[in-house]
């Protein structure tokens, strides 16, 4: 189909507007969901920029300080759904002080004025107070979806406000937050005529909820598809809930501690039998062997099994996996051992994602967990594996090379050898060749976390081969500035670089001047960067925010923690005293 | 090379027929199968006053009235016909078929009668005869390897090769396998490493502690938590020694905690029951599977549990370790050497 010459002429005629009426263009563009696509579309021409802006219903802000809520509201007038991320990822590991910032409240104030019909808010690593939650509940009458992941600063009082006021709520997803869990009474705040809930995840919480209120809630919310309960929900409670909600697609159980009589056990088994549509199973706190079989009838259609809070042994895992022929995602604790992972390899041919967490990561004397053997076993059996997060205590270059031979499609390769700077335990060499193999073989790699003893060679490999890499995490690695330089000079798609405890100094930091504007952020802590280096960076690159946090008792000239990010709004004004904002001006 | 056919229990009461120490049961090479008379004899009261110092870890005995053992439905067991789920040898099956407890090749466990003695079930101690339900700990006839073992039990009449030196030399015990964990000083934890989110960290920590609170605590002089590790187990447990009154209680608690590991290992050998089980296969399995309960005392020495009166033990015990008999220093220097070589 050749281009219509007449249209082409009109199209290139800059005095005419687009051949399509704006409404049509908007309509077409509204079908675009990916924000990357939308960004690309908005750069075509002014008309398209406008049409895209008017048709954007969901906005994703990866760094809350890169832009202001006013600018967002000005550009996108009709947003119904916002995703907002705040603190640097290393705040999850206590490397960022609590009062660092990322307060959601200023955003809510602007949204209340500009997006009164806001329906969805998803926050990650933001500071959220009870006042903010109440403000949200009261000011947005259409509010439907609230998701809080890794946030902190609020308590169950805030949840009570949400439950009380959000008449149209469909999703309440409270996940891995630093929440002040005062009481379970928030759950009783849902009005008796409230029936719209589809997703309820309160696995984060510990205090007992009023079970009767929960049971009534679950009974009357006929559209409930996702229910993830907290530990306080016993097996007996679970059975009653399941009876009310056989339509569940995702279930997070409460505690699986044995407390049932034989009769209750049978009832529970029956309840699980009714769950024909279950695709995700999680929770399983304190799962103990006797009760696992009760889950079996519900496992037939499972695609995601999260056992990362269940201390299972290899044979228990194997028995469970035999019931799940369609498993695509599996999270486990390393208590299952290499044997358990062999069972994974044997029983899960469709597996795409595996996460193995350490049960006792801080105890040095733990002898086993998982090793390279387990990972190898999985790679032989699960050729579709593309996402792995693996905590182990020993690894070899040869094993990793074989693993990526078996599974060349990795997009996310996160390997954590828990002892910092540990070499290949067989050859005693650095783990350079392992990660070299990863980046060479896995051309689709988007995310990489490295560990073990690594020289600059690893980073040469990464810079040279990791053409699609977007997120890179480095710890206790590298030999000199050259390592970081390689990363910054290579890796054309790099967006997030986080580095800790590496011998990279000012020369390394300053080698990426232009690069940082194409990245979301850079984090460097416990490296060799000085205040002068940071000041130089700030001076050379005025559109970057360069923030430094100092550790207690450190040398004046050392820049202990450095956070660099691009921003269109300049240095932030809400930085606490511990954060030094270096301005280039 | 074993030169002493006669067994001595390690507090020198070689003649007491009912005295069987844990080391007997657990050593890989000394096959301390209790003889018929031992098993069948209900305790002699002579052993009672030494009960405190006895730590018997043995296989569940069929004459044990106190223990309710739940067998796995699928054969993860050496126990001949005991694998049969309808076995009535004092092994009632609960509804919880998959719970495996008490049926391990490890250091557990049956306490027979009032003697506090743990014996092998099945009556035939002298033969590796699974058909009769004998439960073995040690391969018999393993004559050449006795130096790895720990203490001998009462004098046995049969072919069992005994460890040459009794436990008296406990001070020479330095678990060879212990070297990699030799008293690590508490290493300063690196902040934020390994990278695990707080929520997960806190949940794990509280679950680990909670698991260890299964045993009823007693009020008293506070807690005395010691770590318990087991060779081959993927993680440690902690126990509060104050919650136990005697070695018996401790052992049953440990057995409960670690049963899953030994069973796991059982399973890994593909053991499926008495059919097809040959003696040599059994030996293979058992070689790696006997366990000895040891502890590190205040001086940093590794001792066999059970040597000293209970109170003395709780005062001096810093750490517990369930190690493979084959790696246990035994008390013989050669054993230690041999273990070192293996590592």
The assembly state of the depicted protein chains is heterodimer
Low-pLDDT ranges of chain A: none
* Parts with pLDDT < 50 across at least 5 consecutive residues of chain B: 1-52, 57-187, 214-222, 263-288, 331-343
Q: Count of helices of chain B?
A: 7
Helix content of chain A: 25-40%
Tally of DSSP β-strands of chain A: 23
Shape of chain B: globular
Work out the strand percent of chain A.
Answer: 15-25%
**Major beta sheet summary of chain B:** 5 strands, mixed
- Specify the overall morphology of chain A: globular
Protein name (chain A): F-box domain-containing protein
Keywords (chain A): Auxin signaling pathway
InterPro entries (chain A): COI1_F-box, F-box-like_dom_sf, F-box_dom, Leu-rich_rpt, Leu-rich_rpt_Cys-con_subtyp, LRR_dom_sf, Transp_inhibit
Domain F-box (chain A): 20-61
Task: Walk me through this protein's architecture.
- The complex is a heterodimer of chains A (585) and B (343).
- Chain A is α/β, with parallel strands linked by helices and 585 residues long.
- Helices cover 32% and strands 17% of the residues of chain A.
- Chain A contains 20 helices and 23 strands.
- In chain A, the strands form two sheets. Chain A has a 21-stranded mixed beta sheet.
- In chain A, α12 links the parallel β12 (304-306) and β13 (329-333).
- Chain A is globular, with a radius of gyration of 26 Å.
- Chain B has 343 residues and is an alpha+beta fold.
- Chain B is 21% helix and 7% strand.
- Chain B has seven helices and five strands; from the N terminus they run αααββααββαβα.
- At the A-B interface, α12 of A face α3 and α4 of B.
- Chain A: It holds the Pfam family LRR_6.
- Chain A: InterPro entries: COI1_F-box, F-box-like_dom_sf, F-box_dom, Leu-rich_rpt, Leu-rich_rpt_Cys-con_subtyp, LRR_dom_sf, Transp_inhibit.
TL;DR of this structure?
The complex is a heterodimer of chains A (585) and B (343). Chain A is of the alpha/beta class.
